[in-house]
Fold each of these.
Amino acid sequence: MPIRQLSVSGVRNLAPLELTAHPSVNFIYGDNGSGKSSLLEAIALLSTGKSFRSNQIRQLINHDADRLELSCVLEDPQAADGDKELYSLRLKNGDVLFRLNGSVLTSQAEVATNLPVQVIEPNTFRLLVGSPEDRRQFLDWGVFHVEPGFIEEWRIFKKVLKQRNSVLKQKEESWLDAWDSGFVEASEKIHQYRIQYLEQFVPCFEETLQALDPNIAVRLHYYPGWERDSRLEEVLERQRERDLQLGYTQAGPHRAELRIRVDKLPAADVLSRGQQKTVVAALKLTQGILFKQHCGTAPIYLVDDLASELDSGHRLALCKLLEDLKCQVFITSIEKQQLMDSWTPQDYKVFHVERGEIREEPITDPSA
């Protein structure tokens, strides 16, 4: 569901804005510090509740404001009136409010379901160099969106994990047998969801990476969170004494990881920054492809600073894949011409950002 209209207030240096977006491609250009990245950041925040530039939400709120307000109207062919309206309010004290068509939503996950986004930005290579948690969250984004039952099973697992850890902290070993049974059952369900997703993901990723750069040979390996050749209940039994000493559970799907390697080495240790960004772009494009196969529509792509770490050939390849996906894209660059040279869609809009003010530019017909 593409964004039709976007409203932003109280975000960094952006002036309050009302923007009518194009359902296909939205080019956004402006000098460094002008606010173009903040616009993409606002869309990502509305969807995920997180910023791709900062871990502190308070830093996103304009220093002269006490709140941050975001809303968007989504085109929804299945809705009676053809539209959905999402609204998010965040106060500096940490209070949040989400609404869909005026009705209060109880979680960020409900917002994400209605507004799925993928972000490709200058620091996107952190998916390779960052923590296992980063890659685990990346994997679970895909599972969450294509497997409807995953989120409820994940909530059950988190509750059981919390209870088991509580027993471990209190050194109540006699209770562990009872909790281990439920923990193993919940863990296996999470594991199976991930395996089923990866069976589709891996071949699609390899094909997508080839389209972006046939000279990069990367392989994905899934570590479930315990030794692959052992049953989880056996691992828990072997690690019980150590778990009791530490006060937490060492093995399980909360320790899973998507390992990304070149031969037997971590890809981050082998590839250049540009190659790393190409690999991450392939990972995120693959998620969009599978999302569309399962859900019928593609997620929205936010591509910040297209030229960063990518040469012209890779920029063209990336934009070609996004065009083939037929998704809505918000894409930024310092120079307008750099955007136009990388991508020549038939339908698009151009926005210029200057000192926090965003202005839509008229499109000139080159054949006129």
Note: The CA atoms of residues 213 and 314 lie 7 Å apart.
Amino acid sequence: MSTASAYSAVPGKTPASPAWRVLRSLILLICCLLVILPFASIVSTSLADAEQVNSTGGFVLWPDRPSFASYEAILSGGVVSRAMMVSVGITVVGTLLSLTATALLAYGLSRPGSYGHRPILLLLVLSMLFVPGIIPSYLLIKELGLINSYWSLILPMMINAFNVIVLRSFFMSIPQELIDSARIDGANELTTMLRIVLPLSKAALAVIGLFYAVAYWNSFFNAMLYMNESAKWPMQLVLRTYVVNNAAIGAGEANAAAGAALPPSYALQAAILVLSIIPVVLVFPFLQRHMTKGVMLGAVKG
């Protein structure tokens, strides 16, 4: 069926004119190019050789002679590879703890008549409106003895009030008859949540987990405040230190000892940027099928 006939098949829908379809296609093409070109330029710059990067001033759209010299120089120092492992560990542990705490809190708040659910819900809403400052947060972490500890990068971000409220709304949309049938069969609240509620909430949990994982992976400010040892820095703080401050991160010493010249700074910065987004790009396709259902939480169903 052609596009025009498909439009005409919908009652009250007039087919779009060819000029409007061409204009719409051009707008979509321009939007796609605006998204793809910066990313393609970063990847190309990281793969370009020193001569091409210097001749183009750091902007390479397509490498003439692809080379992995920038990645070898970055990974040879050990700083980036160690920071990558730190970020992966923080993201995995933090996401699991955040999902567990968020699911338990959201389920408790979604059950009518649960003890203290109204004051706790009010505190969650107030925490979204009144955010503590940097100094009180730092003093709290210091009093808890978490300075220079990986827990200082996980515990302050473990529960997000918005994610709790969204997941609570999803739990409340589950038919009450299923909960009642589980209770008739003798299931307690924990069994009901594990056997009934959570299996029906895979899409919501996948989206909330993705939100937490991206937040943990991209977080650098807490590490900048609480981490005194550079050996414990996560990937994003190393990225900020090198790209924004243009500081050496250890690759220069390793290459100088080997007698090799460093690639241009633009190529090194592009290589670090590519390494920092690879894990998110690899994980997203596995969660994409849940995104469509998950992002419709709270939407009006007709």
Note: The chain has two domains: 3-67, 73-294.
Amino acid sequence: MSIKQILGRIRKADLDYNLMQEGDRIAVGVSGGKDSMLLLYCLALYRNIAKRHLDKNIEIVGIHIKMGFPNMDFEKVFDFCRKQNIEFYEFDSKIYDILKIQANEDGTLKCSICSKLKKGAVINEAIKLNCNKTAFAHHADDAIETLFLNAIYGGRLATFAPAMFLTNSKMNFIRPFVYTFEQDIKNAYNEVDIPIVKSTCPMDGHTKRQDIKELLQSIYKTYPSSKENFLLMLHNQKKLDLWVKQEDLPQNEH
């Protein structure tokens, strides 16, 4: 998939879920990996599409939170953003120190806590930079994996939303890559010379999510059509058909 096609997927997500409006100043959470770097680049390109074809003027701001992991140099990212006329900021944090204090008994870090702390830190800095929305690079594979994680470990059919309003911070949170698969990102990434900063997190590649990712890859190999169908089922409301207990029925349907 090309950059042009990725932009088409972003536009579809924007129109389907009303992700971006006139006057938005959107902070993009940037970890340094290919997903977040490509989202930052594509949204910078999408500014022009939104202005020309959708009559929307939007601003894009990149935000990186320094987690405290060693040997992560963002100088090339700063250079890239200057060349692309993208605002980019980097902020210190004590997230790694907190994670080490709250680690599991075996010393492994708690990814769920890390995710919440990182999201909160990006939003806090976004507010200071006068942004009214925050965008993360969660993609279609992430959404499907989240569905399976919730089903297997939580007994519920649920995934994250393309757009949501966070009441505590009064921040709108969006995910423009919800129609874009990880392989699409990899293919498009090869088109452009975007720098990446490899994560030095000790938990990288050793999570329950990684196990689910490998399970799904096995399913896709055996049943190739399942990948697009799994994405379809996340928004196929007309075909939603689950059990409803008598006590959960509306009063007039008893």
Note: The chain is about 45% helix and 10% strand.
